[in-house]
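REQUEST
  id: r-88c1
  op: predict_structure
  target: Short-chain dehydrogenase/reductase family protein
  payload:
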Amino acid sequence: MAIPTQLTAFPFAGTPSPNLKGASLLRWGAKHPPIDPHVSFAGKTVLVTGANIGLGLESAVKFAQKGASKIILGVRSMQRGEEAKTEILTRSGRDSSCITIVQVDLEKYASVQEFVKKLEKTTRLDIALLNAGLCNQTYVRSAEGHEMAVQVNVLSTALMALLLLPLLRKTARETHSPTHMTFVNSAGHAETEKAWLKDSLLSTADDEASFDVRKSYMMVKLLGMVVMKKIARQANDRNEQDGVIVNACCPGLCRTNLGRNFSLAMKVLTAGFQFFTARTAEEGSRTLVGASALGWESHGKFWHHDVLFPMSDLLQDEKLVNTCWMEIVQALPADTVGSAQ
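RESPONSE
  id: r-88c1
  status: 200
  body:
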């Protein structure tokens, strides 16, 4: 029997009880990891950003194991990219020709623009898994003048998504098959409260005086969901022959190095907590890989615990969403504004 090339999502089945909160909810997630998707990526060219560590690395391994013809590793360090390539090939048994390493630093717009120019030289792009991200314990300002997580997780990711859309559309038209753009996010986005916002969501998340590691994390994730929703609206007219399926996913709490910039004390505390409440990076990567194979029912939706999961009610506030998107676009390089309309 042939392995399917697309998965079908079903809403709400098998999700945790709404009575579970906090550590109990996380423990449920650890005890009920996602199913490893039974799907083939044969013939596909796949991009994974943040591919040298954690969820990105595990996703790249899984894409290789499931037959992807070409895997592009978007990494900040070429040396670490080479190390990741070696691990991927060792674990998948694939030939080195299936891996391409392309350097990108999401702290800088120019690096993102140059990265996409390099990718445009490839003949096709079937899947863009936008996974790169970080979380800082304290406020850090990027070279572009924004809070670092806002810069990397939101602004530069939005820029990359906008610039990749033409290549994804082109591949879909030429192959007569939908392509995919999947944003890695978190169910924590739904914990953002409107009362936290001093002015707009972006300005509050970007404000040093307002920085709180927990609240800032949630707001950055909500901003990321705004990006996904807006990109999904722009991507296509749901032409199932040559469109781009855009969705977001949450792997749940996983044992990764997302908090690599935390203090030693915080790392020790986090590691102890995650031992009992977190999934492994491999288990989390099942969600990322599965989301990138979903059909049109997932377009503009959120994949979590192997189902299409409810999103924050704030994403139903069109004024808030439109204001957020306008501010995000205004923060991007001027020459990309036209493609964001």
